[in-house]
Amino acid sequence: MSRIYVFAASDMEAQSVRKIAGPNKLVLVISGMGPGNAKTKAEAVLSPGDKPDAVVVIGLCGGLTQSTQEGTIVAYTECLSSKPGRPPLRCSKTVTDTLMTALMAAKIPCDWVVGITSARIATTRDERLNLAKSGASVVDMETYPIVKVAAEIGIPVVVLRVVSDSIDRELPDLNRALNDAGGLDGRKALKVALGSPIKTLKLLSANKRAMQRLAPALEVALTAQM
Q1: For the chain, which terminal residue's Cβ has fewer other Cβ atoms within 10 angstroms, N or C?
Q2: pTM of the model
Q3: Distance from C-alpha of 161 to C-alpha of 9, rounded to nearest angstrom
């Protein structure tokens, strides 16, 4: 039995994990949205004196290339940061290989990708193309600081996400609703949603579909012997 800390940005992304019962001890950590919140939470729960066997970062991500279409399940080989000067961080090949083998045996496709973490939401095709210049195929808002904190104290990290919005999907400009910590201000987010109701509804539906697709993969991966 392995002790695994599973990081998710939101309750919606964490719901699938709560339903998983298996041989591993899963500790669910809700980090909050954005790299600032993710860093703070990772530093609070990960310590050299009480290390889990692995950290698994899960949830949604955005596609930066035509090949990473909505519903594509991805595992990161490494994670980049949109902040200049930050070095690439490698994910654990050994543990990721184990999970990928389990997914293949269950006939669940999963692509190897490079991910990039950004403090801003990539809402347009141009923003995504600019991020893709880094060599990344997908973008999220939490992975890099979690991997960094875990790597500094010697905890292997796996990232398993699903593409919820493709390169061509236009999103409501929720960047206008981000607070200083990188999360969403509820009142401002509501204002943005009311200003772009169709885009918002499509986004929520896409997020739900994506997590439904990721759920079976999480059940297989998080019950595998690590």
Answers
A1: N
A2: 0.95
A3: 11
